[in-house]
Amino acid sequence: MSVVVAHPYAFEFEPDTTALLIIDMQRDFLEPGGFGEMLGNDVSQLRVAIEPISRVLHLFRDQGLLVIHTREGHRPDLADLPPSKRKRGNLSCGIGDVGPMGRILVRGEAGHDIIDELCPLPNEPVIDKPGKGSFYATDLQTILQNYGVKSLIVTGVTTEVCVHTTVREANDRGYECLVLTDCVASYFPEFQRVALAMIAAQGGIFGWTATSHDLIASFEKEAL
Ligand code: C5J
């Protein structure tokens, strides 16, 4: 059993039944000209999470542990895009329209893919999701069950949207979630702070929070 110093109390997990979940580290959210910028955000704010995620990703790969990536996006025919989501924001260039990185948030387009720094390996499942949560209308739960996963180390963007929705979905399905505070990011500093506080509040109502340093230290301690 590994133990991480965490909030609201120590997070215990078996590495063999734990997966690293990397949520939506796509060009559309992190690079200029994508969905994030079309919504009026300063996308450079999210880049702070790349390096810490990369360190945890390499740790999981070195240990032979399960890594799962997600991408938010839609079919090229947009048949899975609710009209409400398409209309939201009254954007002049929104989901399905052609932007500088191809059609916004559409599968197969450059903008929809994961940034080069965190490119998945062929053996790492990539979950394509049409919504904010990673369980809704995907095969994530089947994959987690097949691998015997009980705990999730959660990283990615954005903290208060797709990370939060996924952690809530996972919590309701019985998974123990540890969210790494420096491996998630928001366009809004206030939302980052409050979203993380909400996860660990009330005795860990949705899960635990810790830094990537604390997670990595738990693996180093285990190796002694
Ligand atoms: C958003 C996400 N923010 N990945 N998606 O629309 O958080």
Description:
By secondary structure, this protein is α/β, with parallel strands linked by helices. The chain is 34% helix and 21% strand. The protein is built from eight helices and ten strands. α6 packs parallel to α7 (189-204). The radius of gyration is 17 Å and the shape is globular. The mean pLDDT is 97.
Question: What percent strand?
Answer: 15-25%
Strand order of the largest sheet: 7-4-3-8-9-10
Query: How many E-type strands?
Result: 10
The end-to-end span amounts to 14 Å
Number of helices: 8
SSE string = EEEHHHEHEEEHEHEHEH
For the sheet with most strands, the description reads: 6 strands, parallel
User: What ranges have pLDDT less than 50 throughout 5 or more consecutive residues?
Assistant: none
Radius of gyration: 17 Å
Helix/strand structural class: alpha/beta
Q: How would you describe the shape?
A: globular
Ligand types: dicarbonimidic diamide
Q: Residue share in helices? A: 25-40%
For the residues shown, what is the average pLDDT?
97
Short overview:
With 224 residues, this protein is α/β, with parallel strands linked by helices. It is 34% helix and 21% strand. A hairpin with a 2-residue loop joins strand 5 and strand 6 (102-103).
Write out key terms for the chains shown:
single chain, 224 residues, alpha/beta, globular, binds dicarbonimidic diamide
Task: Please give the structural blueprint.
Elements: E1 2-4, E2 11-13, E3 18-23, H1 27-30, H2 35-38, H3 50-63, E4 66-72, H4 83-87, E5 98-99, E6 102-103, E7 126-129, H5 140-146, E8 151-157, H6 159-172, E9 176-185, H7 189-204, E10 208-210, H8 212-223
Parallel strand pairs: 3-4, 3-8, 4-7, 8-9, 9-10
Antiparallel strand pairs: 1-2, 5-6
Helix pairs in contact: 6-7
